[in-house]
Specification:
By secondary structure, the chain is mainly alpha-helical. It has two domains: 198 residues, Orthogonal Bundle (Fumarase C, Chain B, domain 1); 322 residues, Up-down Bundle (Fumarase C, Chain A, domain 2). It has 19 helices and seven strands. The strands form three sheets. Strands 3-4-5 form a three-stranded antiparallel beta sheet. A two-stranded parallel sheet has the order 1-2. The protein has a two-stranded antiparallel ribbon with strand order 6-7. It starts with a strand and ends with a helix.
């Protein structure tokens, strides 16, 4: 049960609600009093004929036009309907659920002038599995996510059958959904349409879900790297604490410590401290950079993800509409908390980091398939070289080569490409936060696919190395215990038990490789076998 109080939401809380966790509104007296006081303050100000942006004026570049008090409520109804101006692809249910949570959390801070009765609808919708249909496009992240939030607002209030709701998998119009939930349509009062539609909750909800996925996928990537190092008979000495205490970036130290843990107990790695260096005569006495510099390469990515998560959590727990009501100070503040710049820049940075992760994995796979670099493994990791027509994982590498450049390309920034003329030059700086978050989600889809390929490479390479070192293709006894769990998880997903005599891929025609990739992708999305195998990695890398 996640409590919506206006503060204290973490990435894990947002992701839990996105996946279906129940919620409750904080019901302490102070929170309720703030909400009710801000509502009363707005109504009194309207009744007194005060000029308040978006309440007794029109919006944006039309804010010089005054609206009389008797039209204040009608203005809010008109705002929501006016903003419902896009079509096309819909946001996934988890992203809309995250947005519902964050909009409610922002409004629960009690500075937005909205009735508690409306806020209670957010909890009702989330707990009943009622999800407004919200389109992906339309937000420039300037006055927040105006258009996506308007679709949410219209569905919550039931002002028109044009708004649709997915109620536990059945799509219906908003008034029908409200009826099934025991609710009635609720006309908006002064300021309430603006409170519902003005803010960063949609793009920040998408961003929070992206960060949750990123943590999980980076944990898988680190596990894959650990198997690759063993398959290449690399050394764990590169992760010795002595090295990293003399360059103590937090991400570098965490990565090195976790890699050392993942490799502990392996029978495949070279022990540079106690081993005989002469045994490496004729090959490099230290690993290539992509292995040896792994903490220095991935460390900035771990630090970056943690920094971005901190920004997104602050945004998720902020009041990000305008104007904000200071009841104690007897003032209405006109400002710009609705600008989603932190979300936009964070998602730009996240996509860049994801491209670096994919590039690093791509380098390791290139080493694995090439006999000049893989220390005795067959070309393209062919499982049965006696069958002269076998090609091994050649095509799987090619498929990965088609994905990696796309992830890198999505690393280009979007936040600096805003239109300066937006909305009568009023929104002449805008964040593009929603677009940046949507691109991050696409990047993660691609990385997920790439990691499915990479996991198949990991199991095949481990089998072949174990066969050479221990005479068995069952790598569970030669891999480190921590990575053996990941190895077993992939084989469980593919329903191919380990074998003494056959690696995962033996003859090309034994399996449909694309089907294997699809199975692993399905498991990654379901967070099933592979997720269980890397849960400790996630906890150790990210705070």
């Amino acid at each position: 049960m996640i409590t919506i109080s206006g503060s204290d939401l973490r990435i894990a809380d947002i992701a839990a609600v996105a996946r279906g966790a129940p919620v409750r509104l904080a019901d302490d007296a102070d929170t309720t009093a703030r909400i009710e006081a801000s509502r009363a303050y707005i109504q009194d100000a309207v009744d007194a004929g005060r000029a308040i942006y978006g309440v007794t004026t029109l919006f944006g570049g039309m804010a010089d036009q005054y609206i009389p008090p008797e039209l204040a409520a009608q203005l809010q109804q008109n705002l929501v309907f006016h903003l419902s101006a896009t079509a096309g692809d819909l946001l996934p249910v988890p992203d809309v659920r995250a947005a519902l949570l964050l909009r409610a959390n922002s409004l629960m801070r009690g500075v937005s002038g909205i009735r508690l009765e409306i806020l209670q609808r957010f909890a009702t919708f989330l707990n009943a599995g009622a999800t407004p249909l919200v389109h992906e496009l339309g937000s420039i992240g300037a006055s927040g996510d105006l258009i996506p939030l308007a679709y949410m607002a219209g569905a919550l209030t039931g002002v028109s059958a044009d708004y649709k709701v997915d109620l536990r998998g059945q799509v219906m119009d908003s008034p029908a959904a409200l009826s099934q939930l025991g609710l009635k349509p609720i006309p908006l009062a002064a300021k309430e349409g603006l409170a519902l539609a003005n803010g960063t909750s949609v793009c920040t909800g998408v961003a929070a879900n992206c960060l949750d996925r990123t943590r999980y996928l980076l944990a898988i990537a680190l596990g894959v790297h650990a198997i690759y190092i063993q398959a290449l008979t690399g050394t764990a000495h590169s992760f010795d604490p002595f090295i990293h205490e003399h360059k103590p970036h937090p991400g570098q130290v965490r990565t090195a410590r976790e890699m050392a843990r993942l490799l502990a107990g392996s029978k495949l790695t070279f022990d540079a401290v106690h081993g005989d260096i002469e045994s490496r005569r004729g090959r490099l006495v230290q690993d290539r950079y992509s292995l040896r510099c792994l903490p220095q390469f991935l460390g900035p990515i771990i630090d970056g993800v943690n920094q971005i998560a901190g920004s997104i959590e602050i945004e998720a727990n902020s009041a990000n509409d305008n104007p904000l009501i200071d009841v104690a100070g007897d003032f209405i503040h006109h400002g710009g908390n609705f600008l989603a710049q932190y979300t936009a820049v964070g998602m730009d940075q996240l996509r860049y980091h994801l491209g670096m992760v994919a590039k690093h994995l791509d380098v390791q796979i290139a080493l694995l398939v090439e006999p000049a670099f893989n220390n005795g493994l067959p070309p393209c990791l062919v499982g049965n070289p006696e069958h002269r027509t076998n090609l091994g994982l050649k095509a799987l590498q090619t498929a990965g080569n088609s994905i990696m450049p796309l992830i890198s390309w999505y690393g280009n920034s979007l936040a600096d490409r805003f239109p300066t003329h937006a909305e009568q030059f009023n929104q002449n700086v805008n964040s593009q936060g929603m677009g940046s978050a949507l691109l991050a989600r696409r990047s993660l889809d691609l990385l997920e696919h790439y990691l499915a390929n990479a996991l198949i490479f990991a199991v095949q390479a481990a089998d072949l190395r174990s066969q050479r070192v221990a005479g068995t293709c069952d790598a569970r006894g030669t891999l480190s215990p921590a990575t053996a769990a990941l190895y077993e998880a992939v084989r469980a997903v593919l329903e191919v038990p380990p074998s003494d005599s056959r690696p995962l891929i033996f003859d090309d025609r034994d399996q449909f490789l694309g089907g294997y990739v699809a199975r692993v992708i399905g498991d990654l999305r379901a967070r099933a076998h592979v997720a269980a195998a890397v849960g400790t990695v996630t906890a150790n890398l990210f705070h």
